[in-house]
Automatic annotation (TrEMBL):
(S)-2,3,4,5-tetrahydrodipicolinate binds at H132, G141, T142. Pathway: Amino-acid biosynthesis; L-lysine biosynthesis via DAP pathway; (S)-tetrahydrodipicolinate from L-aspartate: step 4/4. GO terms for biological process: diaminopimelate biosynthetic process; lysine biosynthetic process via diaminopimelate. The lineage of its organism: Bacteria, Pseudomonadati, Pseudomonadota, Alphaproteobacteria, Sphingomonadales. NAD(+) binds at G8, H9, L10, G11, R12, M13, G74, T75, T76, T98, G99, N100, T101. One of its GO terms (cellular component) is cytosol. SUPFAM superfamilies: Glyceraldehyde-3-phosphate dehydrogenase-like, C-terminal domain, NAD(P)-binding Rossmann-fold domains. HAMAP family: DapB (MF_00102). Residues 104-240 form the Dihydrodipicolinate reductase C-terminal domain. It comes from Stakelama marina. This is 4-hydroxy-tetrahydrodipicolinate reductase. The keyword Ion transport does not apply.
């Protein structure tokens, strides 16, 4: 039985994941939060999942690498330095990093890429996301993933095309940009919409997470899949066979 260890195990996602591990025929190997020993946890499990905080990623990757343990990283708010560290770790161990572990978001990203590729730049692309009042990063990791999908469909990158938030005398919208707006409040598990705004008509592609269970099930599915892979950096599309 595959033993899964959780970084951030007392958090909202950590507890949701621990709840669904038995349903997947796997074993909860334990978890740590602030002050725990990442290497001790990594030694005690077959695969790790990380839903903690960006500041903890480096230590968690060090532990995974030192013990040769595959790791799923769901934590968001990552910088380009974090992504470079993940790339380096993936040369030695299996690593899957994603801003969203749900099946629905993987499908939405594919649809967004397709729509962005087929609709020309007369169709402006804007993303909105809403999350619970406790969320600490913005835009959400999922919004950035959907933005990357849109940018990929348009043959550009988010680094070149993104406009994150607007306020004051912004001037008119620049053609070809991809805009982001973030809302925070209440207990919303995660809502994302991608709007394609044309002349006189709009297409909106949306996903609504009704609870964290979808993320938790996806994280466990990803962990069980990753435990059987060799070193490399993987995506949810590969887990889900999309
Ligand atoms: N990829 C996906 O599908 C999803 C990703 N997420 C992401 O997962 C992350 C966690 O979300 P959520 O569970 O809501 O957050 P919580 O704040 O509820 O939980 C985070 C947990 O991580 C722990 N933690 C924080 N810093 C450290 C550290 N330096 N070392 C070890 N543990 C630490 C916290 O412990 P303590 O209280 O001791 O600080 C806490 O138990 C976020 O980045 C969120 O965006 C969320 C949902 C889905
Ligand atoms: O913090 C959350 O709650 C969530 N975070 C992820 C993100 O930043 O996209 C995934 C999900 O939307 C919930």
């Amino acid at each position: 039985m595959t033993a899964i260890g959780i970084f951030g195990h007392l958090g909202r996602m950590g507890t949701a994941i621990a709840d669904v591990i038995p349903d997947a025929g796997a074993k909860f190997a334990g978890g740590i939060d602030h002050g725990g020993d990442p290497q001790a946890l990594a030694r005690d499990c077959d695969v790790l999942v990380d839903f903690s905080a960006p500041g903890a990623i480096e230590a968690h990757l060090d532990a995974a690498e030192a013990t040769g343990t595959p790791i799923v990283i769901g934590t968001t708010g990552l910088s380009s330095a974090h992504h470079e560290r993940i790339d380096a770790a993936a040369r030695a161990i299996p690593v899957l990093q994603t801003g969203n572990t749900s099946l629905g978001i993987a499908m939405l990203a594919a649809l967004v890429r397709e729509a962005a590729a087929r609709l020309d730049e007369d169709w402006d692309i804007e993303l909105t996301e809403m999350h619970h009042r406790e969320k600490v990063d913005a835009p959400s990791g999922t919004a950035l993933m959907l933005g990357e999908a849109a940018a990929g469909g348009r043959g550009t990158t988010l680094a070149d095309a993104s406009v994150i938030g607007r306020a004051g005398l912004t001037g008119a919208r620049a053609r070809g940009t991809i805009g982001f707006a973030s809302l925070r409040g209440g207990t919303v598990a995660g809502d994302h919409s991608v709007v394609f705004a044309g002349d006189g008509e709009r297409i909106t592609l949306s996903h609504h997470a009704e609870s964290r269970t979808i993320f938790a099930r996806g994280a466990v599915r990803a962990a069980l899949w990753l435990a059987k892979q060799g070193p490399g950096r993987y995506t949810m599309d590969q887990v889900l066979g999309l």
